[in-house]
Amino acid sequence: MKKDLAVVLVSGGMDSCLTAAIAHLSHQLAFLHLNYGQRTEKRERKAFDDIAEFYNVKKKLIVDAGYFAKIGSSSLTDVNIPVSKADLYNTNIPKSYVPFRNANILAIATSWAEVIGAKKIFIGAVEEDSSGYPDCRSSFFEAFNRVIKEGTKPETVIEVVAPLISLPKREIVEKIFDLNAPIGLTWSCYQNEDRACGICDSCALRLRGFQQAGKTDPIPYITQPLYE
Amino acid sequence: MKKDLAVVLVSGGMDSCLTAAIAHLSHQLAFLHLNYGQRTEKRERKAFDDIAEFYNVKKKLIVDAGYFAKIGSSSLTDVNIPVSKADLYNTNIPKSYVPFRNANILAIATSWAEVIGAKKIFIGAVEEDSSGYPDCRSSFFEAFNRVIKEGTKPETVIEVVAPLISLPKREIVEKIFDLNAPIGLTWSCYQNEDRACGICDSCALRLRGFQQAGKTDPIPYITQPLYE
Q1: Which is higher by pLDDT, A85 or A63?
Q2: Cα angle vertex A145, ends A136, A5, to 5°?
Q3: Residue B213 and residue A117: Cα distance in Å, rounded?
Q4: How many Å apart are CA B199 and CA B197, to the nearest integer?
């Protein structure tokens, strides 16, 4: 039987790589990537293309959402706001927060899914062990599914699924190895494009996951501090 | 007392012009406009700028969402799909439907509103006497407000309001004259940029409103059929 089509949001990082591996078990894949003026746009795009090639994905959509840089306010898109050193005990919303980014991405994904006939949208959001972004919580995705139901054609059935939502980073790393997901092709660093900095929020969460899982991260780092 | 700031979605058509006039009664205005590869993009942009000048709006954001043309499927963005002659008794979703467009626009508006501190987002959607788009119904906007609540910072309070949602086009035309909204600066035609065609869905709804209100539309038309 032919598998249903699913849109997978692939930033090119570790979480979206595992999400693609999970979606691949049950669906035909269509990959969506967003350029939103983030500092590491080029490197992320390469990771996206490499992961798509790995899974032999033919349907790809690259969206230029440069308006995020115009809107500003995030250290990821505004070069005047420095990328913070990670503080994994900080419970505030970090400076890298791009306001309402996931709603923007999901709206684009839903438009595309409705046109190509995809039934699911896979997103690699993580709530448990995350950076504290408000648009990465299950309650947000539940609310978004209601918007999809109300705002698309009556015959359209599209559901957002976030298979990593309650996984700690340690389990994400373990599952990556279980599913042979191409972790060496990914890029997570918010700051650099050649060697990962090892100290931004995204590097810190990733490295802590590897350390907790007792695995070695195959990508190059400038430094790999020990995270608890 | 200083008025709160509101983002107004201004396409440049009749409905968004009245929405701006209503928002202007109670708020400081910030205008958001989307280019999404629609056929009449240039003319709509001029209408946007003219209406902004009329209300002396300084905060303006023009977003290039050309990805809609990539996603395709609408006669508004795909030159291979002809713009239909209006059929005001058709209850199907028309070919001009841009999939999930309003969710995309509202997501962008929410990101901007969160950054500039706007408390409301005004959208000129019309449910009662409309083209039958699923993302123009009150239930859609209610669901979207829930997404905003879940997906923004805890201290952020932003509400989408659609003051025209239940107005028939006749009343929209009447209110435009009541509030001295600059209707002569607007553009509604889906097809032409010099003289409105008079026969696309958007022209038909507009002209019927003027005819029912017993008013004359000041913009130039190629033809003005009588609509019941």
Answers
A1: A63
A2: 95
A3: 42
A4: 5
Decide the pairing of beta strands B5-9 and A159-161.
unpaired
Average pLDDT over residues A18-30: 98
B36 touches A: beta carbon within 8 Å = no
Burial call A113-125: b when 16+ CB within 10 Å, e when fewer: bbbeebebbbbbb
Query: What percent of chain A shows pLDDT beyond 90?
Result: 69
Tell me how far apart the alpha carbons of residues A186 and A188 are, in angstroms, rounded to a whole number.
7
C-alpha A141/C-alpha A136 separation (Å) is 8
Interface membership of B33 toward A (CB under 8 Å): no
The C-alpha torsion from A121 through A122 and A125 to A129, rounded to 10°, is: 150
Phi, psi (degrees; rounded to nearest 5) at A149: -60, -40
Give me the residue label for tokens 């409309």. Answer: B130
Give me A87's structure tokens: 């503080």
A36: left (phi over 0), alpha (psi -120 to 50) or beta: alpha
Q: What confidence score (pLDDT) does residue B134 get? A: 83
Q: What is the mean pLDDT of chain B?
A: 89
Q: Domains in chain B, please, with CATH?
A: 5-169 (3.40.50.620)
Given CB atoms, is B28 within the 8 Å cutoff of chain A? Answer: no
Q: Could you report how far apart the first and last alpha carbons of chain A are, in Å?
A: 46
The complex scores an ipTM of: 0.86
Residue type at A225? P
| Set of chain A residues whose Cβ sits within 8 Å of the Cβ of B73 | 114-115
DSSP code for B227: -
Interface check B66 vs A, CB under 8 A: yes
Q: How far is CA A188 from the centre of its chain?
A: 9
Chain B closest-CA separation from residue A220 CA (Å): 34
Tell me the C-alpha distance between A24 and A180, whole Å. 12
**For strand B28-35 and strand B59-64, is the pairing parallel, antiparallel, or unpaired?**
parallel
Q: Which of A158, A87, A123 is nearest to A11 (CA)?
A: A123
Q: Shortest CA distance to B36 belongs to which of B112, B93, B103?
A: B103
- Its pTM stands at 0.88
